[in-house]
Amino acid sequence: MTSIHIVPALLLVGTLVACGSAADVETSTGASDEALKTAKCDQRGEPIVTMAKGTWTVGPLTIISEDPTTGAASASGGDVFTGTFTGTSTYIISGTFAADGSFTGYSDETITAKAPDGTSGTITEAHQPLHIDPNGNFFETSPITSGTGDWAGSTGLLFYTGWTDITDPSGDAPGQGGTYEGIWIRPAPTEKK
Fold first, then answer.
1. Strand 48-66 to 137-149 pairing
2. Segment-wise mean pLDDT, segments of 10 residues, the chain, 193 residues
3. Distance between CA 122 and CA 89 in Å, rounded?
4. What gap in Å lies between CA 12 and CA 173, rounded to an integer?
5. What is the model's pLDDT at position 6?
6. What pLDDT was estimated at residue 169?
7. DSSP code of 10?
């Protein structure tokens, strides 16, 4: 899965070239003391680019529908986030269970959180696609499609990995969750009058 990290690196390099130089990158620490690299383009009216990184923990899941004949299923739930995004999320997921116990599908998620720079808002992700193997190993690629509050106009791409017990909809099984990382791009801030 190392190759999935090439895309965020290429996006960041392209953005840094647009912002000026590697000298524009600053390291700051977040609530979980993880380093974030933020391109300081906002000082020139350009986008703010953040190397997002943190953890997610599974919360309760509510089954909306499940068809044992076809394996089709849908559910809603939420996660708890730390790191770049410190807060909670809500999501709706749909997909198909395979005969081997794996699950492949898509979800839409909204994260309501605060960032280490003091800004807050929501970001919406359109997860494309997600996969849970028979052992519960979780992989997901998540384009950031929009935001609200301080994060209005956000875009980017996050990669999730972790573990989830797909036989435990309550989310009570210990150790469920994982990490996320990727690129979060916010429009240049506007001057407040």
1. unpaired
2. 41 43 39 40 74 94 92 94 97 94 93 96 89 93 96 96 80 85 90 57
3. 9
4. 36
5. 41
6. 62
7. H
Instruction: Tell me, rounded to whole angstroms, the distance of Cα 35 from its chain centroid.
Output: 17
Two tokens, residue 126: 């359109």
Q: What is the DSSP letter of 171?
A: S
C-alpha 61/C-alpha 87 separation (Å) is: 17
Helices (H) and strands (E) in the chain, counts: 1, 10
**Residue given tokens 């909670």 in the structure block:** 88
Helix, strand, coil: what percent of the chain each, to 5? 15, 55, 30
Residues 57 and 59: their CA atoms lie apart, in Å, by 7
**Tokens, residue 93:** 């997921």
Cα–Cα distance, 27 to 34 (Å, whole number): 10
pTM of the model: 0.77
Which pLDDT does position 11 carry in this prediction?
A: 46
Domains of the chain by start residue, with CATH? 2-163 (2.40.350)
Rounded Cα distance, 49 and 15, in Å: 7
84/24 Cα distance (integer angstroms): 19
